[in-house]
Design a protein that fits this description.
Length: about 240
């Protein structure tokens, strides 16, 4: 063993050097060279840092650098995230997306173009004019639909969501709201008046009956009691017919 190589290393190193750091790693750890100024130091990590991908060999596991336009990668030829100014598509970093795709500045990926989609039209509304459905012959009716899929940046724009057309109906007279309300109010007052009249009549009847009853009771108390006439047949003495 070289004098500068040590067996008692720390930080996951199997062998190390005071000048170059880790020379080999313990099992399952990845070996990677980190640059510090003009000097490179070997370190052992459980996973490769950003801009590197891991490769496993029987004798050592290494971290290799991704391509220059790739921020993170799975292998040398398959990128998972691109650096600023590039768009990811099928593992590659492109400055411009292929035909039929568009650049998504939020995810920095090339995505499919999405066109607008609208639902079916609703049935036509009743024929109206100035918000009313009576008092006219010619008016307008409308129908609407909803947007079910909004388009992407390069997708086809959405169509109109409402339509209007002329309509002809049989003219019918509008009922005046004030007059109808007045009639309802008069009916209500009349009903309340009739109920009050019946209530007053019932109260008068009860009062009259009570007054008559009290008058009869008073008369019975003030009049003297009539004496019964003597029974003439009882006052006569019995006649003795034997003599």
């Amino acid at each position: 063993v070289h004098p500068n190589v040590s067996q008692g290393c720390q930080g996951g190193c199997a062998t190390c050097s005071d000048y170059n750091g880790c020379l080999s790693c313990k099992p399952r750890l990845f070996f990677v060279l980190e640059r510090i100024g003009m000097k490179q130091i070997g370190v052992c990590l459980s996973s490769c840092p950003s801009g590197y991908y891991g490769t496993r060999y029987p004798d050592i596991n290494k971290c290799a650098k991704c391509k220059a336009d790739c921020d993170t990668c799975f292998t040398k030829n398959f990128c998972t995230k691109c650096k600023s100014g590039f768009y990811l598509y099928s593992g590659k970093c492109l400055e411009k997306c292929p035909d039929g795709l568009e650049a998504n500045n939020h995810t920095m990926e090339c995505t499919s173009i999405v066109h607008c989609e609208a639902s079916e039209w609703s049935p036509w509304s009743p024929c109206t004019k100035k918000g009313k459905t009576c008092g006219f012959k010619r008016g307008n009716e409308v129908r609407v639909r909803e947007i079910v899929q909004h388009p992407s940046a390069k997708g086809n724009p959405c169509p109109a969501t409402s339509e209007s057309r002329k309509c002809i109906v049989q003219r019918k007279r509008c009922q005046k709201e004030g007059k109808g309300k007045k009639n309802r109010e008069e009916k209500r007052k009349k009903s309340n008046k009739d109920e009050s009249k019946e209530t007053r009549q019932e109260s008068k009847g009860r009062a009259a009956r009570r007054q008559n009853r009290e008058q009869r009771e008073n008369n019975s108390k003030t009049q003297p009691k009539k004496r019964k006439a003597p029974n003439k047949e009882q006052d006569l003495a019995p006649v003795d017919t034997a003599h």
